[in-house]
Amino acid sequence: MNNKTSTRRCFIYLNAAILLWGITPLLVKVISIPVVPLIVLRCLIAAVALLAVCLLRRVDFRLKSAADTRRVLFCGFMMGLHWVAYFLSIRVSSVAVAVIAMCTYPVLTILLEPLMRRERLRRKDILTGVVVLIGVATLVRDFNLSDHITQGVLFGVLSALLFAFRGIISRSLVQRYDSTLMMMYQTALAGLLLLPALLFTPITFAAHDYFWIIILGLVFTAASHTLYIASLVSLKAKTTAIMQALTPLYSTGFAILLIGEQPTLRTLIGGSIVLSAALYEAFRGYK
Fold first, then answer.
1. Alpha-helical segments (H) within 57-178
2. Are 124 and 281 in contact (CB under 8 A)?
3. Contact between 22 and 95 (Cβ < 8 Å)
4. pLDDT digits (tens, 9 = 90+) for 134-144
5. What is the DSSP string of 35-60?
6. What range does the domain containing 220 cover?
7. H-helix or E-strand spanning residue 10
8. CA distance linking residue 90 with residue 70, whole number of Å
9. Looking at the 3D structure of the chain, how many domains does it have?
10. 107/113 Cα distance (integer angstroms)
11. Is the distance from CB of 180 to CB of 54 less than 8 angstroms?
12. In this structure, are residues 216 and 27 in contact, taking their beta carbons and an 8 Å threshold?
């Protein structure tokens, strides 16, 4: 296979992965069971599928140190909490609001990482953070905790914060371990850590829930991650970062077409500000 064909195939893989991520919030709206049981089932189904991929590829499952084991545990815990906050954001507000709020994570990452490494923040990073804050504030009609948009924004930003923490800690892991293995461990841990919450959550399944939960775990979690990893073979990091920043456009478009959610003008303006900051970071980070 020549380089041009390989790059084209990887670009198709990347677009397929991002399309799947874009549709995922719609499934959270469609599936009727509470958020925590949904995440537990999603994680455990995805973990089994990713385990099969690792076995087929004969991946080494061993972790090299106790410190790495602690990092994997932390990342699994952060992943579980991130999905709880993200899914709650989708449920209480709209797909567009939740996904836009979640897109603050690249900027949160560049603000958090220097603090965690005890380094000085750069002025450009602070300015980008201010721009994102303006964009998020634009989403909120009235800062009232009883308002569903305000709740959605707060849960969405919390999910982005948790995702940023996980990303910073994961960075050292994915440099030394197979990324599918790390995803398998983290989804399994997230599901297992949230499993006790099922004892306190009554669950009633609608007829369509079983099918969509399986699809969510297999296709929209395990398969999307596998496609994304496959795309990295020939694509530059800058390309993947920019494409990921466009995920809200897919999600909002699908929400309009498939479930009739119409974003407000305020949401579009705030989203444009947040996405501009995220795209700026994507370009600046991979020059």
1. 66-92, 95-102, 105-116, 123-139, 148-174
2. no
3. no
4. 888 888 877 77
5. HHHHHHHHHHHHHHHHHHHHHHTT--
6. 3-285
7. helix 3-30
8. 30
9. 1
10. 10
11. yes
12. yes
